[in-house]
Structures are given as C-alpha cells and as structure tokens.
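Appendix B. One record, verbatim.
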Amino acid sequence: MKTVTSTVYTSDLINILTKFHKDWMKTVTSTVYTSDLINILTKFHKDWMKTATSIINMLTKFHKDWLKTVTSTVYTNKFLTDARTHARTYAHTDTRHHTVT
C-alpha cells in the first residue's frame, strides 16, 4: 500500500511540476517576445519621431519661404498698382490743365 501511495504522490508531484514548468516556460517565452516587441516598437517610434520632426521642420521652412514669397509678391503688386494708378491720375490731371501753345 505504501508503494502505491508513494507512486501516486510522486506521479501527482511530477504532473504538478511539469505543469508549473510549462506555465513558467510560457511566461518566460511571452516575456522575451514581449520584450523584443517592445524594443522593436520603441526603435520604430524613435525613428518615426525623427522622420516626423524632419518633415515638420521641412514644412515649416517651406511655409516660411512661401510666406515671404507671397508677401513680397503682394507688396510688389500693390506697389506697382499704386504707382500706375498714381501715374495715370496725375497724367490725366496734368494734361487737362496744360495748354498747348
């Protein structure tokens, strides 16, 4: 009776230890894969942030340059329009009052 009981307990203990080992292996494997995945995602995020920052800087520079160009064009057009209007206004006024002799 003692041998049978000992064998049953030993078998149960082996089953418990085997289950514990399997669960432990799943946990360790999951932790390793999760750790690798986190490292990959962290690297991807850092690379993505560098790229996004570069793109934002480039777009900001483009926008500043574009704004200078548009502002310059608007002021140039306004200046030319005002000068032409001014010239036409005074040209017409001057020709009316002059008499040809």
